Each structure stands twice: as structure tokens, then as C-alpha cells.
Amino acid sequence: MSKRGFDSGPMGGVGGEMGQTRKQRIDLADLRPGVGGNGGIAPVGGINPHTNRPYSSKYHDILAKRRNLPVYEFLDDLLAKVKKNQVVVVEGETGSGKTTQIPQFLVDAGYTRDGYCVACTQPRRVAAMSIAKRVSEEMDVTMGEEVGYTIRFEDCSGPKTVLKFLTDGMLLREAMFDPMLKKYKVIVLDEAHERTLATDVLMGLLKDVLQRRPDMKMVVMSATLDAEKFQKYFGDAPLLRVPGRMFKVEVFYTPEPERDYVQAAIRTALQIHLCEEPGDILVFLTGEEEIEDACRKIRDESANYTSTHGELAVYPLYSSLPPTQQQKIFSEAPGPQAPGAPPGRKVVVSTNIAETSLTIDGIVYVVDPGFSKQKIYNPRVRVESLLVSPISRASAQQRSGRAGRTRPGKCFRLYTEKSFQKDLQEQTYPEILRSQMSNVVLTLLKLGVEDLVHFDFMDPPAPETLARALEELNYLGAISDEGLITQAAKMVLSAPDFGCSNEILTIVSMLSVPQVFMRPKEAAKRADEAKAQFAHVDGDHLTLLNAYHAYKQHGGSKDWCWDNFINVRSMGSAENVRTQLERMLTRMEVPLLSPDFNAPDYYTRIKKALTAGGYMQVAHLQKTGQYLTVKDHQIVSIHPSSVLDMKPPWVLYADFVLTSKNYIRTVTAVGETKNELEACAKRLYQL
Ligand code: CDP
Ligand code: MG
Known about the structure:
Its EC number is 3.6.4.13. GO terms for molecular function: ATP binding; hydrolase activity; RNA binding; RNA helicase activity. The chain has 24 helices and 24 strands. It has an 8-stranded mixed β-sheet with strand order 7-6-8-5-9-10-4-11, with helices on both faces. A 7-stranded mixed β-sheet has the order 1-12-19-16-13-15-14, with helices on both faces. A 5-stranded mixed beta barrel has the order 20-21-22-24-23. Bound molecules: cytidine-5'-diphosphate and magnesium ion.
């Protein structure tokens, strides 16, 4: 032990004094190193069919490694099963090659012929990006071309893309605009055992889509032993079981509970570095702040031992970390400082993402404090929050398994064995049972699912919970009496995507009150001039926003309203509505964002958010100079009260007014680009 000493460490002495700790051996699987592959699917030395270029030497290097992955032996079996069945369930130990290989096999087997795509979902953004990168290297193509990824706010795919990794949430979003998911031939739902809300909803939706699209295939992949449940849910789908190649992992528990798990984790990592054989370390912590703090402390402390015990390279891993930083976890551990000096090692301090989604080769030691951040719903106060909570026994098993990938390893659990047996629950509950139902209901409504009670959930929420959510949403004006989502709710909910929920809240509130701009006959000209101060060239929604801003700038002054022909009572109501809506959004954890007012795209973002939510009420300019409403094909004109003085090709409107003539009132020009207009039209067509 070093003179600085870690003798008070949680393990009572990792390394030399191991005998004093309670330990238990866990045989994760038979030791079966180095089982060879069964030949290749891609020709050696040949031409890459995706790029028509010769394969690079890197391709062949990786191919040799790929052939050693357990899943390789099951390639024929998998393809035969997929050919014969619409749904196939694959269960395989983490690291056996499911995620990186199976989607590729499907592409190589021809499922992307005729312009189709294979999609593979991931619950986490980091995994989607990092796996897309790895697979594009494996297939020897440029990322973003043949192989790509899509995560929220970032689409790295293109017209040539045949294989796309995307978060389950993104596929759900695509389903909102393309309910039959027409561009995909095969959907691979990965990490299904995680049972995220998005994956659960997708499973219900896809069950229906598969019935309507007999040509479509689905592969459900999971890491744990719950395969039977998935098989049953998908009408007795066949199972492909891929055995892992695991080495023994010795599991150690602390004799006493730890008071501060972060400190304990730091101490343990350092002790491993000082006392254990070479091999890399993986430490599980719960979030960015904790991880960065731990990394700093480990770095500082280990620097004292570089000359005697080798260099310790420390890498954090969490979802908000920039991709180039994330990629560093795959770097080689540092070598010896000088010939004959001790070799270095790396330690990765990660959130749950390293539990099953990402495999880091070379990990021999795992430090598991037993916690992760989880979504918890408190039905009493109806609040959903992300809390640091104990993991399940299934998670703990997964975590320890990460130590036995390349040779026998050790897992240090920073809790007592009794706690593992008694306190940890067997499995984590599916997210849907831990979520606020209002959000789930709104998601389903956005997907066009109206019969919520009969939606085929794998674990259905209680009907009373659903009913209560519907009632609440109706009360808040987010859904109509018929149970349909309102236009205002759609706008507000899509606003965070464009970073302007504050502005949309204001507009929606202003739309909910009676006429804001007064125009007494005797002072029409002065009233028009007053209104012109707020006018925005693109139309009335933005004009309402400007008026509200001006009102607030003048402290809501009655005199100011009077001077500017603004209805003071309406403004008061709008403020009131806004406060209520804001409260509701905070409760639903919808982020309240504003774009930079001086940014050139300030108004563009707002218009995009309006279009995203309001696509039901769009009209298209006709040759006659009138407009045709897209939803119910009415010929209309723009109401004379509108500030719009030209006739844009597409407009969004708030009201349909029937007088002697059909008018649309409160009108804004939308669709900046041709693409946007097409997307808009496509959505309408599908509704
Ligand atoms: O999905 P599953 O857990 O079955 O395994 P995978 O993610 O397909 O990983 C298979 C193997 O690919 C890993 O064991 C790593 O050896 C390798 N891999 C890698 O070297 N670099 C990556 N970025 C991803 C995977
Ligand atoms: Mg995987």
C-alpha cells in the first residue's frame, strides 16, 4: 500500500488483502476464448459494393476482429429466421456483436434494395452516434452517406443512406409524419430490455404497422433474459439466442454500507490502480457533475503515482459530452513511461450508458456504486423527476459483466451483499409505469392514436390513470372535448425543438383572448397607424408577439394601451392564460426557451414552430388570388384586418370566419423553403 494509504478504503484493501473482504464468484459463462468465425460475408480484397472502391486495409483489419464476434456464427440462422418471419427476437450477451453486426447483415442480405433503409434504434444519443461511426468504419464508407445517424437536433444521414442508427424517440417522431414508416424495410429495435417509454410506444405502433405492411420486418434485440415476454407480445416470434464469450468475474462487496458513494468510487479506482494487475477500469456514476468531479479528483491524485505505478488516463462519458470527447473512451491505455517502467491504464467514468449500449474493450475492473439517475413519478403531487436511485439486480449483473470481456476480471460493488439481496429490486420497472401519463397521452394523440384504452401496450398503464390524464389535459385546453389534441397544444409542444417555447406561449395566449387591436370607426386611421408599429411583414401571429413584448416593456400600462388602441382587458387575460400555461409546461418538464432576439433567425424559428404545430390550418394560394384551405378544401380570402399586404404561397391561419365571404383571420406566411412546404403538404396528406 502506498504511504498516502487507502487502507480505510471501502474494500478493506483491494489487492493484497483481498482475503479479508467477502467475495463471491459469479460464473457469467463458460470460458470460451478465441472461437473462430465461419468465413466472411464480404469478399476479401474485393470491391466495396457500397462505394465501388477497393476495400481499405483498415477494413480488412476490422473484418478479422468482426469474424471473431459470437454473433458471426449465427448469421445464416438469423437471415433464415428473418426471411421466414416478420418479427424475430434476438437475445445476446452484451458485446457479442448484436448492434454493430446484425443491421449490417441485413443490409448485405439485400433488404435495402429498391431504395429502402434499415433502421436501428438506440435509447441513447451517444450510442446512436458512436455506433454509426463504428459501423461506417466497418463497412468502409463515409459516415453520413451510406451509414448515418439521426438524433434530436442533428441529422447525419443523406439520400444514399441505407443504414441509419437513430434514437427510439426520433423514430417515434418520424412515425408522426410517416405513420407507415414507408422508407424502412427492416426496423431493428435495439436494447429493448431497457423498456424506455419511446421503445414501448414504438412496439405498440409497429405491431399495427407490421400488419398493414406484410413486406416489413422487425428484429427486437435485448441483452437480458426477458426474451420470452417479447416473443409472446409479438405473436410467438422465434428467438435467436447468441451466447456471449465471457470470462469469470469475481464480485466483491463492501462489508459496511458506504456513506458517500462518489468518494468511495474515487478511492476504489485509485486503489485498483495502485494494487491490481494491469487492465482498464470502468466506474459507474450518475451524471455529468458527479463524473467531472470524480475525474478531476482521480486525475489529481493519480498524478502522484505516475512514476511508480504508471500513468492513469481518465475519461468521462455522459450524454452531453461533445462527440469528439466521447470518442476518447476508445483510446488505447497509456504505455510505460520508460522502458521497464510499469504500464499505464485508463479509467472511464461513465453514466449508465456503458452498462449495455457501449462496449469498451480492455475493461478488467468495474466499480459499481449501485446508483443511476432514473425517472420517478410521484402520483400524489403528479410530478415526474429524474432522481438518483438504486439500480436493479439485473443492472448490477450487467455492470459486473463489463469486466469479463477480454479476460477474467473483478467487479467492486460499493454496497453490502445483504443490500444486493434484500434492497435491490429484481428488474427496473418499465419507464411507462414511472411516467406522468399526460405526456404519454399527448405523444399517442400526436401519433394519431385516438383509442388510447385499447392501445396494445406491453405493460398497460391502469385505465384510471389514463382517464385522469385525459381529464387534466382537457381542463388545460390541450385536448378538445372529443379527446383530440388542439392546435395550440401542438404548437406549444413542438416549440422547444425550435428553441422558442416562450414566444409560442405568448402567441397562443394572445390567440386565446378576444380582439387585442381596437379599431373604433371614428379613429380608424389612427388605430391603423398604431397597429403598424407592431406589424411584422410576415403576418399577424408575429404582430401579436410584438404587441405583447411592447405591452410588457411599458409595464402593462393602461395609458399606453389606450394610446396605442390596445384592448387592456384582453391583454390582462392573455397574461393570465400565459401564466397558467407556463405552470403546466413546467410541470410537464417542457423546457421554456427563447432564441436570441438579435439573431437573424429569431422570427424564422417561431414561424417554424407555428408550422410544426399548426399544419392542420394551412391554406395555399390559387391562381385566382384566393386561398384553398388544405384540410377541408374551402375557398377563402385573407381577412382585411390582417397586416399581410402581399399574398404568400402558403399561409397559416388561426380562425376561419364565415360572413358574406369566407375569410381566414390572423394569418402568417409560412414555409421558407420548398422542402418545408413539401414536408408540410406531406403531413397534411397523411392526416
Ligand atoms: O450490441 P452488442 O452489445 O452485442 O455488441 P456490439 O455493440 O455490437 O459490440 C461488438 C464489439 O464491437 C465490441 O465488443 C467491441 O469489440 C467492438 N466495438 C468497437 O471496437 N468499437 C466500437 N465503437 C463499438 C464496438
Ligand atoms: Mg448493443
